[in-house]
Amino acid sequence: EVQLLESGGGLVQSGGSLRLSCAASGFMFNRYAMNWVRQAPGKGLEWVSSISGSGDYTDYADSVKGRFTISRDNSKSVLSLQMNSLRAEDTAVYYCAKRDSSNSPFDPWGRGTLVTVSS
Amino acid sequence: EIVMTQSPATLSVSPGESATLSCRASQSVSSNLAWYQQKPGQAPRLLIYGASTRATGIPARFSGSGSGTEFTLTISSLQSEDFAVYYCQQYNHWYTFGQGTKLEIK
Hints:
The complex is a heterodimer. Chain A is mostly beta strands.
């Protein structure tokens, strides 16, 4: 069974940094692209970032480009998101999700970790 | 950026009846369209991908249709566990989501 478990969320001041992790199990981690998606309180879903299976290719939403960095450790089956220069509008539940190929939806998703940025 | 627009924002339906949710893309996304269900405090769950293919374990009462810019999710014979928020997502060019349709009990 595929399982994704996020961690690292918490309360941080505006301008601060936080590093999220997503521990994956139940599949060949290095064969699949991974993604971060966030959801602000009471709001909809927003794609944040993606990384290829090898880690060679990364993409970011304009809203986080230059501030967030996605990475992966395939030896440990862990996906990470380094978030710098955090803003109040970054407050959200952050989900990691697996993607089978370039033209595939996100499935499954982890349970999410809450990031709260205080101003 | 491809903008996804869902309608209605809220849909009130009685159990046992059918519900039809709509999703429109600002430009063609071919059939690269997915539907997700999200219940309070839970992660989104994939229901439909490729506009019309049910994901593993999804009941047959969920069906999707459409291509290009117009898509529909139909849920027949609504069960109590179906009342939730539903999101469409295009994955043809990057990834964008609709704002969601809340399906509530009438």
